[in-house]
Write a structure and sequence with these properties.
4-stranded antiparallel sheet; 9 helices; alpha+beta; globular; single chain; about 240 residues; BirA Bifunctional Protein, domain 2
């Protein structure tokens, strides 16, 4: 899959982050960087249905595009210096809810998942879910396998959010703004023979967290759909056949 030529190209791209340079070497990028990601997605398409059938494995959805969206960024370099894939939930869509992700950069490998930057409404739904089901979350994140990759990570608040007491039994989790689990390695890790196995096993370790985070979002989505069908009141479903 990834080789020393993959890493060499990404390091050169970091030094020469220009469209003209990239277009002149696009064939090398496709062969040494893009194709290994496609190969991994192809293997995940075989393995993931037994691990997490709710996650979308499709190169059209998963594959990261090489060009950056610079419209609202101070960094105007046009190209990403890493390659990788985002794996979203089938019902929630790309970069929404909990997802899986990996990237290979010029100096690092990142593999993991969770919720990176949930909007306010999603974060509120997840916090309510955490407050009501904190024992389930604790069981997930304290398992030996989960702890081995670093446990629950992500930005946190110094205090519990408004509306929850400081001594709430889920206070440790409620302070989270992000709910992430991941492992980081040096770039050469991507060239190891067991890279794919390590990636697949990491995803398998993290998917219980991703599934837990997505539960309240899917439930809310289903309620919204019922409300739309039954004229704005999901409870009307109860009386639809009276």
């Amino acid at each position: 899959m990834f080789t020393s030529k993959s890493l060499s190209f990404l390091r050169s791209l970091k030094r020469n982050n220009k469209r003209e340079w990239f277009h002149e070497r696009r064939e090398r990028y496709d062969q040494h960087c893009r194709q290994p990601v496609l190969d991994i997605i192809e293997r995940l398409a075989v393995d993931m249905p037994s691990i997490a059938p709710e996650m979308v494995i499709d190169p059209k959805v998963n594959l990261l595009r090489p060009f950056r969206d610079t419209r609202f960024s101070e960094d105007k370099t046009p190209l990403k210096t890493h390659v990788g894939a985002t794996i979203p939930h089938r019902a929630l869509g790309r970069m929404n809810g909990g997802w899986l992700y990996f990237e290979v950069g010029p100096g690092w490998v990142w593999m993991g998942g969770g919720m990176w930057r949930p909007d306010t409404s999603q974060l509120q739904l997840v916090r309510e879910h955490v407050a009501a089901n904190h024992r389930q979350l604790a069981k997930i994140v304290t398992s030996p396998r989960f702890r081995k990759i670093g446990g629950l990570q992500g930005d946190t608040m110094t205090r519990v959010p408004r509306g929850y007491p400081e001594d709430h039994p889920a206070a440790e989790f409620l302070r989270h703004r992000q709910f992430m689990a991941f492992r980081e390695e040096g770039a050469e890790f991507a060239t190891q023979k067991n890279f794919y196995v390590q990636l697949r096993d990491t995803f398998e370790t993290i998917i219980p967290l991703v599934r837990f985070l997505n539960e309240p979002l899917i439930a809310a989505q289903q309620t919204d759909r019922r409300a739309h069908v039954f004229g704005g009141d999901a409870r009307a479903e109860m009386y639809a056949y009276d």
